[in-house]
Amino acid sequence: MKHWYAVHCKPKQDERAEIELANQGFEVFRPRLRSRRRIRQRYRVVVESMFPRYLFVHLDDHNEDWSPIRSTRGVTGLVRMGGSAPVVPAAVIEALQARADDDNCIDLQPADAFAANDRVLITEGPLAGFEALFSARNSQERVVVLLNLMKVTLPVHAITRA
């Protein structure tokens, strides 16, 4: 049976890793965002990874050789927790793919509508009905969301009282 797994990439090599894995015949998904950035006194539309340094690969648990992934250009390796690679829920990937256009770009609602620590209710997708706290729209926090989706647990010294 096939499942989605997260692949950790080398810095600024997400696109290269995506191309190299696809050339090897792996099914790869790297969601992207379009954002306006001020570059040299002008605003420009920039496309960036939704989860910087991460992408998703669809692998067969039993019949597929995973070893070429580690030696692929741009790839650090599969994300592993305690020696095994956690499965990314298919519903999460399907929800991202449903919102993505032909270039795998996803339009997000403007973050300006929310302030830090606002309570929000997720209204669509596999997490519909869950309440959350809005924190920010930067790339580091998108990675934290990704890790939470993979059910990563943090050691006690890595957390503080809210």
How are the SSEs ordered, and which strands pair?
Layout: E1 2-9, H1 14-23, E2 27-29, E3 32-39, E4 42-49, E5 54-60, H2 67-70, E6 75-78, E7 87-88, H3 90-99, E8 105-106, E9 119-121, E10 131-133, H4 139-149
Parallel strand pairs: 3-8
Antiparallel strand pairs: 1-5, 1-6, 1-7, 2-5, 3-4, 9-10
Would you mind describing this structure in some detail?
This protein is of the alpha+beta class and 162 residues long. The protein has a single domain, classed as NusG, N-terminal domain (Alpha-Beta Plaits). It is 22% helix and 30% strand. It has 4 helices and 10 strands; from the N terminus they run βαββββαββαβββα. Strands 1, 2, 5, 6 and 7 form a 5-stranded antiparallel β-sheet that branches.
Keywords:
162 residues; alpha+beta; Alpha-Beta Plaits; five-stranded antiparallel β-sheet; three-stranded mixed β-sheet; globular; disordered C terminus
Q: Mean of residue pLDDT?
A: 78
Task: Count up the domains.
Answer: 1
Count of DSSP H/I helices: 4
Largest sheet, in brief, is: 5 strands, antiparallel
What does the radius of gyration come to? 17 Å
Measured as a percent range, the helix fraction is 10-25%
Give the full name of the CATH homologous superfamily: NusG, N-terminal domain
Q: What is the fold named in CATH at topology level?
A: Alpha-Beta Plaits
- In whole angstroms, the N-to-C terminal distance is 40 Å
Low-confidence region ranges: 152-162
Specify the structural class. alpha+beta
Shape by Cα distribution: globular
Q: Output the helix-strand order.
A: EHEEEEHEEHEEEH
Percent range for β-strand residues:
25-35%
CATH architecture: 2-Layer Sandwich
* Strand count: 10
- CATH class categorisation: Alpha Beta
